[in-house]
Amino acid sequence: MYQENYINSLRAEMVSMVETHLSAVAQEYGYSDVPLETTIKWRPMVLVLGNYSSGKSTLINEFLGADIQAIGQAPTDDSFTIITYDDKVPESENIRVTEHRDGKFLLNDPEYPFEILKKHGQRFAAHFRLKKVNSPFLKNLALIDTPGMLDSITERDRGYNYQEVIGDLAHLADLVLVLFDPHKAGTVREAHTSLRETIAMRTYEDRVLYILNRIDECASLTDLLQVYGTLCWNLSQITGRKDIPPIHLTYSSRAARHPESMESSGRSFLYLLENQRKQLRTAVLQAPRHRLDNMASFVETHAERLNHFLEAVLSYRSRLRKFRFKFNLTGFVLGLIAGGASIFGGMNAGLLAGPSDPISLTAGAGIVVLFLFFWMAVPMRYIHSAFHRNYLKNIDQLIPLDTQTRRDSWQAVRDLVYNYLKKSNGRFPLYKVRDEYMSVNQVYEEGTREIRRALNELANIEYNSETIIQDSSKPLYYYHSEEEPPEPDSFDDPYAINESTKF
């Protein structure tokens, strides 16, 4: 109970920190269209992506323990579906969809973190929906099923920007599952774009799991090896990485049970492989355990980016102020020279009595004032415009970029800084930006350290709460497992692993 209260308290503190110090600044400068805290207030989410007919719906149905999503060889669903838990229905009842909601409800209900998706328009809203299901699997997380990725579809065909939607959902999700099947091992164009550009920019690599699904449809072990090699090659080209990420090999136990799947004796190779469905299920169930880490990373990332944004804006204003001071000082000196020259000229012409004469001093001072007015009205405007254009052109000079971390963070806000300076023409209340910078910097420098310290304390709480198990034949020891014990599959596996034959 103490551990649970500690987790809830820490989560509430992070949400409050974002709401108090970051959200208003993010919305004011166009960094975010919605309050930042809306994306971290809801439950953990798992995003399921894949080519059409890669087995996404079948996998989700097995997780849930019932046929919730439609399945088929052809594309069966063109909607983004949020599948969440309904705690109002007793667990004793059969697992089923207990409530449907359309996209308009989902995008406008403050309980859910999907307000950020409003920008994708009405056509997207027509392909966005919510299902509540009374499956125990969903007690601590939500699943997001997506339309299958295709090869020749365009934004016009869908009616909305598919890649932008995927990017926003990947940003919200705590775990992303990417499914492939033996027939399309990563060659679909939308899959290439999603992995190469969209997901790589909107989430972290350690949150993405790659799955080669439906391996029971390979005709032989040789066929499977060829498919696996093809997928590895495609992933190396797509991700641009030499080290290929781990690939889970899975298949549906129910599909393998069908007679047509058992006819070929060549599929006996499945006995030599471990159906990693259970490991995948365990990884999904562990998503809530990573939620606090993900929230901490969320606070750190956005605090750092907003800190660099405001740092650049203040740097621009500081340089502009120094430039103006030097330019105005130059104008004042030139004004004094012009005033002295006018007095000297008046004396030579016999119009003025001398430099100490009140009329001479008044005339000289007038010349200085008139010159300064002219200096501020004409040359200053021209020079300020040149200064502004120069820094917009060389905007990377505003803040030091001496580390890769700062360069990565700067790239995320660089265009926002450019647009803000261009729109404001460098004129904004300096005191206000300075106060906002101090508030954000406090989160960046101190708040994030406190969060990490609290997470370390939580880890110690988990360690101290380990169960002591005593065995009569062994000495007393502490038992601690990094993973939760695997839950039994919802469906029997006809290809159960025999430890004596498993390689």
Distance between the termini: 42 Å
C-alpha Rg (nearest Å): 32 Å
Secondary structure: number of strands:
10
Mean pLDDT: 79
Quickly count the helices: 16
Helix content: 40-55%
Identify the strand order in the major beta sheet: 3-4-2-5-1-6-7-8
* Category by helix and strand content: alpha/beta
Largest sheet: 8 strands, mixed
Shape: elongated
What percentage of amino acids are in beta strands?
5-15%
Unreliable stretches, pLDDT < 50, 5 or more residues? 258-265, 465-503
Give the SSE order as H and E letters: HEHEEHHEEHHEHEHEHHHHHHHHEE
Write down the oligomeric state.
single chain
Explain the overall architecture.
The structure is a single chain. The protein is built from 16 helices and ten strands. By secondary structure, the protein is of the alpha/beta class. The radius of gyration is 32 Å and the shape is elongated. 52% of the residues lie in helices and 10% in strands.
